[in-house]
């Protein structure tokens, strides 16, 4: 699949181009907004990774031009700006995801793959799996190593979210919005409690552990790499 990176910081742009190329993608790189907008509008890219602060045309203008032209290409904003207003503006303009610098390349790669899967119009999944953990969406059942595990509706929704975005570090705010349809309040520990209870059911007594805490960022469900 073909990606476009619009990033004016040379070191970051080259590193992303190399890393995504090694992951199997064809990658174009633009180092200014004017070139980036032209390539985004004229190219046949499956995904655009777009910085906000760019010379020539900024990321907001490029995204706006894409959407006004009727282009539904998924856009992942990549920026050092972490203000809520910036994230809201990007989403309102039609961005599909938003990743704040600095970030781990593994997280970027997971988000890229997730956005590409969403855009393929695949047949809806009925079963999600990680290692020996299986979630049956039709029967609303969960098994690990063949053992049936009983979950509450919210625990099931939380596990489904983690499995669907396997490999992505999910912040507490996103989990709270997706599972409880609420704005995250830093004064509540609802997410921590739910994660702890889910871990006790699907990780305790099983190997390997699948739900991991990324300190200061959130939680991720992933299968540890073999030693």
- Can you tell me the residue ranges where pLDDT is under 50 for at least 5 consecutive residues? none
Helix content: 40-55%
Strand content: 15-25%
- End-to-end distance, in Å? 30 Å
Structural class: alpha/beta
The total count of helices amounts to: 8
Mean pLDDT: 87
* C-alpha geometry: elongated
Number of strands: 11
Q: In sequence order, what are the helices and strands, one letter per element?
A: EHEHEHEHEHEEEEHHHEE
The largest β sheet comes out as: 5 strands, parallel
The radius of gyration is: 19 Å
Order of strands in the sheet with most strands: 2-1-3-4-5
Give me some keywords for this one:
227 residues; alpha/beta; five-stranded parallel sheet; four-stranded antiparallel sheet; 11 strands
Detailed description of the structure:
- This protein has 227 residues and is α/β, with parallel strands linked by helices.
- The chain has helices at 10-22, 33-42, 59-68, 84-93, 105-118, 153-164, 172-180, 190-202; strands spanning 2-6, 26-30, 47-51, 75-79, 97-100, 127-130, 133-136, 141-144, 147-149, 211-214, 218-221.
- β8 (141-144) and β9 form a beta hairpin.
- α2 runs parallel beside α3 (59-68) and α6 crosses α7.
- The two termini are 30 Å apart.
- The model has no long low-confidence stretch (mean pLDDT 87).
């Amino acid at each position: 699949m073909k990606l476009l990176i619009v990033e004016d910081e040379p070191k970051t742009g080259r590193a992303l181009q190399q890393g995504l190329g090694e992951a199997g993608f064809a990658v174009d790189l633009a180092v200014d907004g004017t070139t980036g907008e032209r390539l985004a509008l004229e190219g046949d890219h499956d995904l655009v990774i777009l910085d906000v602060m760019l010379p020539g045309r900024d990321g907001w203008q490029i995204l706006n031009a894409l959407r006004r032209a009727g282009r539904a290409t998924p856009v992942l904003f990549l920026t050092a700006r972490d203000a809520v207003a910036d994230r809201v503006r990007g989403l309102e303009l039609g961005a599909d995801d938003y990743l704040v610098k600095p970030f781990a390349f593994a997280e970027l790669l997971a988000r890229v793959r997730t956005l590409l899967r969403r855009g393929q119009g695949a047949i809806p999944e009925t079963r999600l799996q990680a290692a020996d953990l299986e979630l049956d969406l039709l029967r609303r059942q969960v098994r690990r190593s063949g053992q049936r595990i009983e979950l509450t509706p919210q625990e099931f929704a939380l596990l489904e979210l983690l499995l669907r975005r396997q490999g992505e570090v999910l912040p507490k705010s996103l989990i709270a919005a997706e599972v409880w349809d609420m704005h995250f309040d830093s004064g509540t520990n609802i997410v921590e409690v739910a994660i702890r209870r889910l871990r006790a059911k699907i990780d305790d007594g099983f190997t390997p552990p699948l739900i991991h805490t990324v300190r200061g960022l959130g939680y991720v469900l992933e299968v540890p790499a073999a030693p």
